[in-house]
Amino acid sequence: MADPAQGNIPELSVSDLAFAVKRTVEDAFPYVRLRGEVSGYRGPHSSGHCYFALKDEKARIDAIIWKGVFGRLRFKPEEGMEVIATGKVTTYPGRSSYQIVIESLEPAGVGALMALLEERRRKLAAEGLFDESRKVPLPYLPRVIGVVTSPTGAVIRDILHRISDRFPVRVLVWPARVQGEGAEDEIAAGIRGFNALADGGPIPRPDVIIAARGGGSLEDLWCFNEEIVVRAAAESRIPIVSAVGHETDWTLIDHVADIRAPTPTAAAEMAVPVRTELIAVVADRGQRLKTGLMRLVQERKAHLRAATRGLPRLTDLLALPRQRFDEAAGRLGRALMANTHAHGTRLVRASGRLSPGRITDRIVRGQERVATLQSRVGRAMSVLVERRKDRLARVATLLDALSYEQTLKRGYALVRDAAGEMVRTAKGHATGDRLEIRFADGTLPVAVDGSTPRPGRSGADVKTADAQKKAGQKPGRQASLFDD
Question: How far apart are CA 257 and CA 401, in angstroms?
């Protein structure tokens, strides 16, 4: 039998109970710190919020990181990572479950940070970002050095002082936080900003970049382990020197940089040579070059003197050619006299053959031959002209016999329309069309009257008969083309 007191319990809806539990849980646990392992993390949702769970060996609780909080987290959750989450406990009435809304997140101790660092190092190494083949040597004497660091710390003062002592060059400082929330974004922006400067622009482009920070704990140096910083250093086209912490401190940027300096001061020493030492080296090498050149000149002089002693004297070199020249000059006079005598003899012989009588006979014979050839050419041309005339007369007779005028003389007529085109049939002409009939003795203009031709006679016969009547001729049968 039911307890009568139970009938006095107020009736609640499911929503009333769910929201009452929500208020109770939130009032009891407004701010908690939970230590657990990240489970079910798949990255941010399309909305930007993160949904996963925290668990240990005995229990599990759902966790939420809202979009605005996730963007401010120094450490992002990773699957299997042990973390300490800070936030408030609440419920989700839609599933009658409770959950924690995380407001801050940090690894659970140095061991967790080291595990995360090692996991990230293996991941980036597998992508080849730490390969030695990617690294380039530093320029020996840079004109401009870019430094990404805090502008208010002791690090930048140490770097500037060391560069000034060794070899004063222009230094550009890109101010960036090197610790705390958002430091990794500013460091990456500094590296990419120096690379974005154009050569010859108003702000000179650095030849070397130094990313520097003083010593500190693993948490203090963590921004130099973030992927955004490591990838910005890997993408840099300008050589990078990493100078983070002390000699025993190692960060991921040390692996991707072109060279690692144990301290910021050492980075300045690596970036520029010692000016006084460089001057001494240049002077020493200049002196050595001068001494070497003097020694080389002396050796070449000695070799030249030795070579000149082995050469014959000038008079000995010219004696034989002079003798040959004298002999040739003597033979030249005699040869000219003999040549003149021989040509004179040939001239006398030729002049004997060129007497006036012989020349006259040759001219007379040539004239007779020319007259004979002229006579033969005249006869040949006369015969050729007569043959061409006969052939032309035969062709003219044949052309006259085959011409259409001869056909018209045999009684035929040629009909043309107004356009001058030949009319071949009676069809296709309207009343009033103008035609022209040509006979052997002239032309006759006519017009189509539209009358029907008599049976058995074509339109052409009718037109021809009418034309003959008008011309005063007697109609009759049209002669054959073969009538004589």
Answer: 112
Integer CA distances (angstroms), 381 to 84, 385, 388, in order: 133, 6, 11
Which of 369, 441, 374, 453 lies closest to 409, judged by CA?
441
Task: For residues 203 and 268, give the distance between their C-alpha atoms in angstroms, rounded to a whole number.
Answer: 21
User: Using one digit for the tens of pLDDT, what is the confidence trace for 16-29?
Assistant: 888 888 888 888 88
- Cα-atom radius of gyration of the chain, to the nearest Å? 62
Q: What is the dihedral of CA 414, 419, 425, 428, to 10 degrees?
A: -150
Instruction: Give CA separation, 458 vs 27, 440, 468, in Å.
Output: 127, 22, 15
Look at strands 170-175 and 144-149 and give their pairing: parallel
Instruction: Find tokens 């052939």 and name the residue.
Output: 391
Distance (Å, whole) CA 149 – CA 230:
15
Phi, psi (deg, nearest 5) at residue 144: -135, 135
Cβ–Cβ under 8 Å, residues 259 and 138: yes
Residues in Cβ contact with 410 at an 8 Å cutoff, skipping those fewer than 6 apart: 479, 480, 481, 483
Q: In whole angstroms, what is the distance from residue 201 CA to residue 38 CA? A: 49
State residue 399's pLDDT score. 82
The pLDDT of residue 458: 47
* Interacting residues of 205 by C-beta distance below 8 A, sequence separation 6+: 144, 194, 197, 198, 199, 238
| 373 phi, psi to nearest 5 deg | -65, -35
User: Which of 27, 44, 22, 39 minimizes the C-alpha distance to 85?
Assistant: 39
What are phi and psi for residue 183, nearest 5 degrees? -65, -40
For residue 156, what pLDDT is reported? Answer: 92
Residues in the chain where the model's pLDDT stays below 50: 1, 455-460, 462, 474-484
